[in-house]
Amino acid sequence: MMRASGFIRAQIFHASRRGLSAGPLRRTPVTAASRNVMSEGFMNGSSSIYIEQMYDNWRSDPNSVHKSWDAYFRNVEAGAGPGEAFQAPPTLIPGRPQQAVTSAQTSTAVSTTGDVSRAIQDHLKIQLLIRSYQTRGHNIADLDPLGINSADLDDTIPRELELDFYGFTEKDLDREFVLPPTTFIGGDKTTLTLREIINRLKNIYCLHTGVEYMHLTNFEQQEWIRKNFEQPRVTELTAQQKKVLFKRLIRSTKFEEFLAKKWPSEKRFGLEGCEVLIPAIKQVIDRSSTLGVDSVVIGMPHRGRLNVLANVCRQPLETILSQFSTLEAADEGSGDVKYHLGVCIERFNRQSQRNIKIAVVANPSHLEAVDPVVQGKVRAEAFYGGDTKCDRNLAVMLHGDAAFSGQGVVMETFNLDDLPSYSVHGAIHIVVNNQIGFTTDPRFSRSSPYCTDVGRVVGCPIFHVNVDDPEAVMHVCTVAADWRKTFKKDVIIDLVCYRRQGHNELDEPMFTQPLMYQRIKKTKPVLEKYQTKIIGEGVADEKYIKDELAKYGQILEDAYDAAQKITHVRNRDWLDSPWDDFFKNRDPHAFVPTGIEKDELNAITEKFSSVPEGFNLHRGLERTLKGRRQMLADNSLDWACGEALAFGSLLKEGIHVRLSGQDVERGTFSHRHHVLHDQKIDQKVYNQLNDLSENQGEYTVCNSSLSEYAVLGFELGYSMVNPNSLVIWEAQFGDFSNTAQCIIDQFISSGQSKWIRQSGLVMLLPHGYEGMGPEHSSARPERFLQMCNEDDTIDTSHVTLDETFAAQQLHDTNWIVANCTTPANFFHLLRRQVLLPFRKPCIVMTPKSLLRHPQARSPVEEFVSNTSFRRVIFEDGPAKDNGANVERVIFCTGKVYYDLIAARKQLGLEDKFAVTRVEQTAPFPYDLIKEETNRYPNAELIWAQEEHKNMGAWAFIQPRFNSLVLCDNRGGIKYAGRKPSASPATGNKYTHINEQKQLLAQVFNVPKTSL
């Protein structure tokens, strides 16, 4: 502290000489001594005020000021005149003894004033020099193991790292300087020579580790990082630790060599050039386990995945090696290429002596798409484990350099870091920095100096490290784990490496990177380099090396022999979220009613209509709550009530419900209001559905960031952890899901087929043509229907009107696509998601205008016991009892139903035209459609939709309808609706109304003018 005090006081002195203001300070009584202080020639203006304050403090406590000021004030008090009291501070000019200044020494004191000024300036320069290394040292660090590239794409040396920038020369190298309080390079020393200062700074910041942390805005965090890198001997490993590191390098390196030898023509996306990744991940896990983590979820691209599965997760080697054989599938699903697969394994960690669960999440070739999925999974595991601060749950994300800087979902995911309902309290990011993206030079793939610069936006420390220095890698991994434990914030480890093969093992990289690959061919693998190092240090001898290599070689050969005996691929061996207990004793064809008791319905509605006493509710919401109570009294519940009843009834059964998305708390259309805000007390809120009963499940309703891609991926990951939950993502408008298409296509639609991974995730997509233009009309139902795995023809003899047929359809489908028209049916659909004996994603085209439509209401009787979801709602008017005379049966889905029945009533055609609603479009309800068409044997069949002909459900339902009805000579079903279009909807209100009338005229075969 004395060293720090001396330096700071010296700066104060220097500031006073320059006449700089120290800010307003209180005045002190003017004494003769204080007048003497103020009369000193180098003090003036506001500086004298500062000196007065210091003098006042000194009079109370002489130890409160630096010794130089103590001596000065003592001389003043002793009667020294102006210009006589000053003496040079002893800490500024090393080796000069402190002496009392008397009047006889005045001339000496005056002569030293210039020397003192220079000394102060030099020490300020030393502080700036040290800060420059802390800030810019990474820019000249030796990070490239090939020695040909600068990791920051800049070969120049920052001027502030050169001596002449500060006016120093070689003559100054052996001068001794006081170290500032913002560095720990001195250890126990308070002064060092300039030569030693520079040597230590270069060894810390400019060798094989480059540390970026001065962009952090938190001083405590900066200090913490300085301590962990600047303190002497902080990076050294013990002999035992070096042996462990060496053995891990053996596994990482020899695993890839073995695969290359046995299957030279197979793609495997090996790790050659970054073999240190395996020891790095293991060090992160070891250290985190020691710090209390017992579950790690890893997300990664394909490079090195098999190695991670083998040597980090310890997936049985024979299981991995069997993936290289052509085997039959032992269970359902198409499977996936081996370098996309995941796993979940619990194993004993020898370093921490604790069990730890490690999961690698399956990931497609959309490299960064897995990032939010991992974080959602970690968040859910922490939630169910009561780990509110994620002390026991950790996300480890691996990235490629080009993908990390190039793909927007990375930034979207980082933006979730500190959001209360999404935070995983810090993830550890490891970038496998190949210094090339497929064939693209980094100078053409990013505009930032480093591929990791995206992390600077959210205040991540970034540790760049040369992979050919495995011990440096171990150090940064340890610091990263400690950082995450201490501050619960993200951290990035940038492993600067190279790719010994091409993009894959069959690629020829010399086509586009000839110079780089000429150097790679001459570069020894890190295992050879480290082997030489530990032998040279006496840590190991030749026999030890040979024995360890032979031991792992035999393990690989034994696993290879065992793999030859495997005859079937078990995709279930690659599950990253196993639910074994969930499927036990469940009949996949047994459905249960989804209705609830009337008393329960009343209780939930009453709670949904009330607020606690003293809560200052918005007046508009007072009317809303009163309206909810009135709807119950009138036996006519709206959409918001139907949704709340579904959530509330599940919550009372102990089911966790999570609703996430943009503005979902209120609802985009102001219909939901699940979080009420006190109008007089900031941040005082009330969630009615979390106040139903003592033992209820927790209801999480949370407004998300303005992201679809990352947030949908997050909710998917969340849904994977516990099947006994209802996880919902709602788009602000249905077509906003466009920007989450990667998650939809690669994970939700095909996840079970590729990875045997079930999910009950629900997507609510507001949909409906109401004149709101091309970006607020269509949720693109055609896309979801196109991706259904159901065949478009069926043998009618297999269509039976029983529960087994419908259950089998749901069991076999990849997802459910629905467009409900009543609150009760929506209620049942949501409850069915949880009560099914398996899990399927559910895509719901939710309404906008129907949220308040007076006819889109449901009586209480449609919610209570022994009721369930209606896949098709049949015509229930006069036409039902006039089947033989009905001219047309109009099939439709969604909001257009209400337009159709209004027009039918206006035209007086209620006994001639039947209107039937298809509530579940996929799986297609063949059984119920067959029953309905048989009811009207003479009627023409029409499919009416408000979407354009090349959109909506038409292309999906046409072949399915026709496979049922062509045999009865009716000629199939006909289309009524808008013509094909490139745009989903018109942006012109007049055109919209005209198109809507044309649709209705076509359906009812009347002139448009009659509508």
Automatic annotation (TrEMBL):
GO MF annotation: an example: oxoglutarate dehydrogenase (succinyl-transferring) activity
EC number(s) from the headed UniProt entry: 1.2.4.2
InterPro entries documented for this protein: 2-oxogl_dehyd_N, 2oxoglutarate_DH_E1, DH_E1, KGD_C_sf, ODO-1/KGD_C, THDP-binding, Transketolase-like_Pyr-bd
Family classification: Belongs to the alpha-ketoglutarate dehydrogenase family.
GO cellular component: mitochondrial matrix; oxoglutarate dehydrogenase complex
Gene Ontology biological-process annotations: glycolytic process; tricarboxylic acid cycle
Functional note: The 2-oxoglutarate dehydrogenase complex catalyzes the overall conversion of 2-oxoglutarate to succinyl-CoA and CO(2). It contains multiple copies of three enzymatic components: 2-oxoglutarate dehydrogenase (E1), dihydrolipoamide succinyltransferase (E2) and lipoamide dehydrogenase (E3).
Domain Transketolase-like pyrimidine-binding: 637-853
Keywords: Glycolysis, Magnesium, Metal-binding, Mitochondrion, Oxidoreductase, Thiamine pyrophosphate, Transit peptide
Gene3D superfamilies: 3.40.50.12470, 3.40.50.970, Multifunctional 2-oxoglutarate metabolism enzyme, C-terminal domain, TPP helical domain
Organism taxonomic ancestry: Eukaryota, Metazoa, Ecdysozoa, Nematoda, Chromadorea
Named cofactor requirement(s): thiamine diphosphate; Mg(2+)
Compartments, record wording: Mitochondrion matrix
Short name of any one Pfam family annotated for the protein: E1_dh
Keyword Oxidoreductase on entry: yes
Reactions catalysed, as given in the entry: N(6)-[(R)-lipoyl]-L-lysyl-[protein] + 2-oxoglutarate + H(+) = N(6)-[(R)-S(8)-succinyldihydrolipoyl]-L-lysyl-[protein] + CO2
Name of this protein: 2-oxoglutarate dehydrogenase, mitochondrial
